[in-house]
Write a structure and sequence with these properties.
homotetramer; 331 residues; alpha/beta; Rossmann fold; Dihydrodipicolinate Reductase, domain 2; seven-stranded mixed β-sheet; six-stranded parallel β-sheet; 13 strands
Chain lengths: 331, 331, 331, 331
C-alpha cells in the first residue's frame, strides 16, 4: 500500500480525488489538509464520505506520505514551499495548479508578464498528460496536472498536427464548462442567482491562462473562448480547424489511431458527436469529428472536468509514478 | 408624479422593485442607494436596466422622496435610524425586513429572545398585506412588507379560520422556495455547486424567523419546514390542515369568497393544484384545495417570492399609501 | 382596436404571443386555435393566463380578424392554405415558420432540394426584421417572422458588412440556445432526463435550416454550429469574424451607429459582453465586441428567443403593419 | 460467474442496472432486451456504456440466464407471462414494477379496485427490502423490488413503530423526487419546458400507487404527497410523526440501532439533516431526526431513487439470492 497526502481536501478537486482514492486498491490516505475545516473530519462536511481527519497544513506529517497531491486554491502562497519541501524529502508531487505546466521559463515570463518563481521546479516538472508523456510521467518526481479546458483542445488537435494535416495554424476553440471548474471559493460569478438559468462568455480570445499549455502541447496558435454553463460538471469544446485541402474524413479519423489502446480516449463513431452526459462521472475524453466543407472540420470534444479533467487524471499519473496498473481505481 | 427613494437597490428585491417602478405610470425614482456599487449606474451592473445612478446611503437626499423603500440586507444597522429619520421628515416608509412585522413588542421579545430595538415604530407599523389590512395600509406611514413564506400560509389559512372551519389548531406548512429568497449576499449555502441539482430542508419545525408573522396573522399554531429548491424564483407550500368533521369541499371553497374581487389571489378550479410556473413572473398567489379524507385537507399555495412575495407586494402597498390605483404598474 | 387571430395558441411561441397581446393597448384577440386543446379555454391549460376560448382551426372565423399570426408546428400542412385564404380575404399575415423567409425561389430550391410550394407567396413576403426592412414591413401583407438563431448573426454582422469592414467572407457562428427553441412537441431530445444537466451540439456546419436566412441577409458565407443549453429561454452566439487589417475597435463600433434610435438593439459598453440573463424576458438583442488580435474579432450576441427572437418580434412587425406605435405592448 | 438477463435495458432503471452489473465481479450479462432499439448495441445509444447487443423480448434466450431482472415500463402486458415462464424454467426473478409488492391479494384488490392478475405469483413474491426481509430474500425465487418513494418512508418509520414509539397512527409523508423517477417514456409532464425551473405536487393525499407498500411495511396510516423536483435523481421525504408523550431524542435515535451493521442505511449525527447531494450516486439511504416540540418529530430521509431506490436495491437482493457478498458491486 502506497501512502498519499492531500493538501486541500475540501475543494471540489480535492473532494473528487478522495472519492477516487477511497476506492483505490493500492493506496491509503496518510493525511488530508483543510483551512477553515481543519480539526473536523471529512464526514462532518459530507456525511457519506470516508471518515478522514482534516488537519491544518502545518500539522500534516510529510514523512507519512510517499506522494502528495497539492490541490490548493489558485495562487496559494504555501504551494511552492510545500512542493520544494516534499521533493527535498524525496516525495513525489502531483500539483493541480497551473504554475508548473509550461516547460519553458521564458514562455512563462512572456505569457504572465513576470518571471517564474521557481524555475528549477519548472524544469523538473512533467506535463501530466499520459497520452503524450507517459514514459516521462513514470520517471517524474513532479507532475503538473493538466488544466481541464486544455485537455479538450490538446487531445483532439495533437494527432492531426502530428499527422501533418493542419493547414491553418490558427485554430478556434469555443469551450463551455460546468461551474465546478470555478472551484468552491465564493464569488458573485458562481453565486446561484447569477449563474443558474443563464450562460456567458469570459476571458475570450487570447487572455485565458489555460492558453499557454494548449499552445505548448499542440504547437498551434489558438483563439480560445471559454463560457460558463449552468451545469455542475463537464466541458464541451467545439473546435474549428482547417485541414489540408483534400483531406478526407477517413484520413482525419486515421490520425487518431495514435490513441488505439488508450483506456480513456474515445473516438466517436463517424457521424456522431459526443454530449456532456456521455462523459459526466466517467474518465473518458470523447472526440467527434465532422467535415463541414473542403478542408474545414468541426471537432467536438467532451470531458468530465473533475475526473479526466482533474482528479482522475492525477490518479492516472499517480498510478504511473508508483508503478501501479495505470487504470487502477479509475474503471 | 410621486417620488420614491430605494435604499438597497442592488439586492434581488431592490432590483425587482426598480424593474416594476421603471414601468409604473405614477412614480419616479428620486434616488437609489448601494454599498460597493455606489458611484456606478444601475445599467453598469445590469446593462438592460434603467440608467439610474447609485449613491451611497449617506449621499441619498431624503427630502427628494415622498416615500422610501428600505431593502437592506438582513440585520443592517442603518435600517432603524433611516426609518426614523424618514418618518420624522414626514416621509412614508415601506420596509422589507422582518423587524416591524410583529405588532406586539412582547411577542417580538418572546420569539427573538431580546426586546425590540424601536418599540414605538413597531406600534406604528402596519403589516403590509392588503387582503387583510387594506384600509390600515392606506393610512399607514410605516408598512412592514410581508415575508415571502408567510404569504403562502396566511392567505390560504386565514379564510378557513375566519369561517370557523379549522378543527386542529396545529397546522403543518411544508414549504419549498427558490434560491433568490436567500438574497444576493455570498454564502456557501447559495454557491452554485452546493445548491444546484440538490434539495434540502433547513430551520424546520418551530425555528424559522417567519413563524411569528404566520401565527400572528392566522391565529394558528404552525409547524413550518422550509426547503431550498434549485430554481431561482417561486415558493410552493403544501399545507396539512384538519377541518371540522363533515366539512365539505364546497364549504371549504366557499370560505375563499372573502377574496372575491382581489386582483392577485387566484383560487384554482376544483381538482387542480397550482404549480410554481403558474405564478413565476406574475403577481398571483394561487391556492388549490384537496380533501384527503374526513376532515383532512391538503392546500397547495404558490407565489413568486420576488413579486407578490416581496417587491410587487410593496408596490401594491405603495399604491394604496399614495392614493393610486391599487394595481398600477402591476398588471 | 385591431382584431387579431392566432393559429397555434398552445405552443411556446403562441403562448408568449398571447401574453404580449393580452397587455397590448391596441389589439384584441379575435380567435385562438389549438389542436388537442380545442374546446378548452386557455386558462384551463395555464391558470394565470387570460380566459380565451381555444377553437379548432376549422372553427376559427377568419372574417373576425384584421391580421392573423400563424404559429403552427414546423411543417404543418394547413399553413399554406390558411395563409392563402387569409390574404385572399384581405387580411394581413405574420407567419412564424421558415417557409417564407428566403426571397429567391431558386435559393429556396437549392437549399431545400425541392421547389417552393407557393412561390407567389414567397415573392410577396417580407423578411420581418424591422432594423433592416422597416419600410417594407409597413407595407407588407405577408411577413415572414425571423428565425431565432439568425437574429443573433444578422444584427451583429450586417453593420460590419455594410461598412465594408469584413475581410474574410467566411464567418463562424457558434450558437447556444435554450430548449424552448425546440418547441412544445414531445421528443426524446427535449425529454427532461436527456436535456437537463447536459449540453450538446447538433446540425453543425452547414446543415441547419436557419443558415439560408443568415446568408441572405448578411451576404456572408457562414459556418453555423447550434448547441442545446439546459435553460428554458435565450440564445447566446459567439461569432468569429476577420475584419480588414488595421480595423480599430472604434471603427468597428462605429459601424453600429446604424442602430442609433433602434428601441431594441443594445450595443454593450466597450469591454463588456452580454450574458443570457441580461436579455431574458426582455425585447433586447445585445451585442458585445472584442478585438482578439490584428483583424480578428469576437462578437457575442444574446437575445430572448421567445421575445425579440419570435413572438415579440412578430408584435413589432404587427405594430408597423397596423400603423401603431412600433414599441406598443413591448416595453 | 452467474449469468443475468435484463428485460428493458434502455429505460432509466435498466440503464443504471447495467452500469452496476458491468462493474460487478460475480455476474455477466446473458442478454438485454429493448423495444425500438432492438438490433442496436447499448453503446450505440450511449457511447460510453458497455458494448452489449440489444435484442427483442422474443429473441432473448431465457435458458442463458440464472436470474432475470424485469425493468419494463409500467403496465407492460408481457411482464406476467415473462415472470411465469422464467420461474417455470427454474430461474430467479427480480421485478421492478409494483405488481408483486403487496402480499395480500385482498389488499391489492381493495386498493386497485380489481383482482390481482396472478395471485399465485403474488403469494410467492418477497418484498425486496433487505433491511426488513433479508432471510426471505435469500430464499426467494421472485422478489418484488421496492418502490423508490416507499423506501424513504418505510426505513425511517419502521424502527419507531417496532419500538412502540408511534403515538398517532396517521403520519404525513411529504416527498420530493427528481424527474428520473417518471421514467424515459415521453410525456408533457416530463418535457423539459414543463418541468425545468418549476415545482409541483401530484397525486397528493391517499391516491398514489406507492401508498399500499408503505402502509403494508410500516403498519401505519399514511398521508402521502409526492412532488416533482427539477433535478434528475434523488428523493427527499419530510415526515411528520407524533411519538409518545415524553419520548426523548435519545430514545427515538435508539430505535435505529436495528440498522447497526446495515451497509447502506446512515443515521445522521444529531442536529444534522441529510440533503439530496449527500446520497446522489450512492447506495445510502440517510435519515435525520429532529424534535419539534413535545411528542412531535420531523424526520428527513433521502435516497438516490435509481440506486438504493431501484437498481442498486435490486442488485443487493440479487447478491443475497445468488449467495454472493451482499455489497458486491455496490461499494
Amino acid at each position: 500500500m502506497a501512502r498519499v497526502g492531500i493538501y486541500g481536501a475540501t475543494g471540489y478537486t480535492g473532494f473528487e480525488l478522495i472519492k477516487i482514492l477511497a476506492r483505490h486498491p493500492g493506496v491509503e490516505i496518510a493525511f488530508a489538509t483543510a483551512r477553515s475545516a481543519a480539526g473536523q473530519r471529512l464526514s462532518d462536511i459530507f456525511p457519506t464520505m470516508i471518515d478522514t481527519p482534516l488537519v491544518a497544513v502545518e500539522a500534516a506529517d510529510l514523512r507519512a506520505a510517499d506522494l502528495i497531491f497539492t490541490c490548493l486554491p489558485h495562487g496559494a502562497p504555501e504551494l511552492i514551499p510545500l512542493a520544494q519541501a516534499a521533493l527535498e524529502a524525496g516525495k513525489k508531487v502531483i500539483d493541480f495548479s497551473d504554475i508548473f505546466r509550461l516547460s519553458d521559463p521564458d514562455d512563462f515570463a512572456r505569457r504572465r508578464g513576470k518571471p517564474h518563481p521557481a524555475p528549477e521546479l519548472l524544469s523538473a516538472a512533467v506535463y501530466g498528460l499520459p497520452e503524450l508523456h507517459r514514459e516521462q510521467i513514470r520517471e517524474a518526481r513532479l507532475v503538473a496536472n493538466t488544466g481541464c479546458y486544455p485537455l479538450t483542445a490538446i487531445l483532439p488537435l495533437w494527432p492531426l498536427e502530428q499527422a501533418g494535416l493542419v493547414a491553418d495554424r490558427t485554430v478556434i476553440v469555443d469551450s463551455k464548462s460546468g461551474v465546478s471548474g470555478a472551484g468552491r471559493s465564493l464569488s458573485l460569478k458562481t453565486h446561484f442567482g447569477e449563474t443558474h438559468e443563464t450562460f456567458s462568455a469570459y476571458s475570450v480570445g487570447r487572455t485565458h491562462r489555460h492558453l499557454g499549455e494548449m499552445e505548448q502541447e499542440t504547437g498551434l496558435h489558438i483563439i480560445f473562448s471559454p463560457h460558463l454553463l449552468p451545469v455542475y460538471r463537464g466541458i464541451l469544446s467545439t473546435i474549428y480547424v482547417t485541414l489540408r485541402p483534400g483531406t478526407t474524413v477517413e484520413q482525419a479519423r486515421a490520425a487518431y489511431a495514435v490513441y488505439d489502446g488508450e483506456p480513456f480516449v474515445k473516438l466517436m463513431p463517424d457521424g456522431r458527436l459526443p454530449e456532456l452526459r456521455h462523459v459526466q462521472n466517467t474518465m473518458y475524453l470523447a472526440i467527434g469529428l465532422q467535415q463541414v466543407e473542403e478542408g474545414r472540420y468541426i471537432i467536438v470534444a467532451t470531458v468530465d472536468n473533475l475526473l479526466k479533467g482533474a482528479s482522475g487524471q492525477a490518479v492516472q499519473s499517480m498510478n504511473l509514478m508508483l508503478g501501479m496498473e495505470e487504470t487502477a481505481g479509475l474503471l
